[in-house]
């Protein structure tokens, strides 16, 4: 079947038909009519379009596309689009209807209403039949960088890369492809490195938060500046990083345990189905978080004790562990465990709920646009807002946990239970007493998110992690 510029695989009829259609599109983009399309003409002709066929179609690497290169690129593109079309056309009738759009999103774990699915359909359906045929699908997506519907999940995947120093987040989802190619462990390493740099960068504010949770009260009116000055006077500038070593050290075991537990629980809930619904993610994530916390909790207690230590009190992590074991016994390593586990529920629940709400709001508003990519600023803002809301909800439990962990460091202090401590704080300081130290906690959110994102992206490049 025929020669011509498109190779032997294309029949003369198909060749002629496509040459006319592609030629018309080429002429629209080639505004100066020089027979080549350069990057400026692409940008001008495609407006908000975010892809660039030059990288894939420009075979002679001259920075421009001639018609033959342009046609080869479109031929390959149409082949991919046809596979996508068949995967959406569940009943194989040659048309995609509104329920098939909705079912596809549901299979990917994105729950859209019938109205939202209709909006997406209307944006592609040109002849008003309330279905999408192959021609409409092809013409709509031919110059759009959307490779498959899973890009919606790729962009909106709730990623643990946003390390704000909390250990209660729901683990990240990895696709089967990422697991088979080994990308999942590279992403976990990149995430751990991002967390380590982020926590080290914001360690002074984290130490101040713990100090204020334990020592601030109505009587001493400790504030951010006064607290930082007090710590520097007691132990010098280096003392601002006390407790950071163990805080960084616990990232790797916690991430690994949480990931393995999450995968097992996910399999128990859904069997071989890949994607969990939001409610199932909450259950699986909470149980995985509780498993990881149970195993590494002694490190949490050590972190609090090392953060609050006075100069010369402990020579290091091992010395701190020995002294706690000798003076207080094994039970001391699980002080505050119960409020910590309880804190996972409001944190993970509100974090996921807020993120899903923001995600679906964005998708609903922008479903007529031909891209699933909301842009990095939108993603970071959604992740930061959802994590912050989760923190606010679980903060009173985190404060009580820290005080229980630190009880032995308060000389002559009582050893109350969780409920007794709640009653004590409320009677002495009112509801605001449960939020001591939240100011430095909020202050570290934006720098922590920014640092972890930048380090994560750079580590992905170093490790050779592909975007999708």
UniProtKB/TrEMBL annotation:
GO biological process, one term: transmembrane transport
Residue stretches making up the EF-hand domain: 17-52, 76-111, 112-147
GO molecular function: calcium ion binding
Database matches in InterPro entries: EF-hand-dom_pair (IPR011992), EF_Hand_1_Ca_BS (IPR018247), EF_hand_dom (IPR002048), MCP (IPR002067), MCP_dom_sf (IPR023395), MCP_transmembrane (IPR018108)
Pfam hit, one: Mito_carr
One GO cellular component term: mitochondrial inner membrane
Primary site of residence: mitochondrion
Species lineage: Eukaryota, Metazoa, Chordata, Craniata, Vertebrata
Organism field: Sphenodon punctatus
Protein name as catalogued: Solute carrier family 25 member 23
